[in-house]
Amino acid sequence: MKVVENRNELNNTVADLRSSGRSIGFVPTMGALHEGHLSLIECSNRENDITIVSIFVNPTQFNDSEDYKRYPRIIQDDIKKLKRVKCDFLFTPSKDEMYPDEDKREFDFGNLESIMEGAHRPGHFRGVALIVSKLFEIVNPHRAYFGEKDFQQVAIINRLTKLLNLDIKIVSCPIMREKDGLAMSSRNMLLSTEQRDNVSIISETLFDSLQKKKILSIAETKEWVIRKINENPFLEVEYFEIVDSETLNSVNEWSQVVKITGCIAVQVGNIRLIDNIRFYS
Fold it and tell me: Are 112 and 248 contacting, i.e. CB atoms less than 8 angstroms apart?
């Protein structure tokens, strides 16, 4: 695995690889890698000749400066994990490398940026779009891999590729979970022991809601999930929305569309966790 810090060096390397007929897979991350990230890399390895991983904690997607400061940065541990899987290039740019000048671009994501994560994290998706568009320009991959835990983000990235007319296939990969069901996240390592002992209730409640669907309306299911999680003193639901899996618009009846997803954000002290569940097979 070669570690590259300079964007021009990586861009030129990729150009040579593409000209030789190699297919490029790309896994953008903010580091603090876990098995969920590694599953994305393994998927890229199966589908491409070359896999490139980036690690960059992107300041423009944090609307809370303290959250940005808290975000775990453990690059040496990350490198050890990457050596366990086939990673051809690791891109670790500095802030100045990615943002030499202020980037004032704006993107029109329609309703996607005004609901759920967009409503609760103003400017977040603009920051995601800024960094992902920059990384796509540098890496110029054939395919890019994202985890379905960030369900709304995947929709944003798909919309971004259409807005910018990019010939990149966006591949979404299933949520990876801990043994107790908690969705894998880099933020999990920030949880205290006591918090960690309680957060499995989030996924337990989501999976239980699949059965509640049989007897409760959508409104009743939402109310049940929120009440069940909020009963735990360590947890506070920020939102739980049941949406059309394709458009992310809210649905009011189970029969309204075929593919329905429940998306949740839960505050655990000063740590914010997200998850989602499919209400279809």
Answer: yes
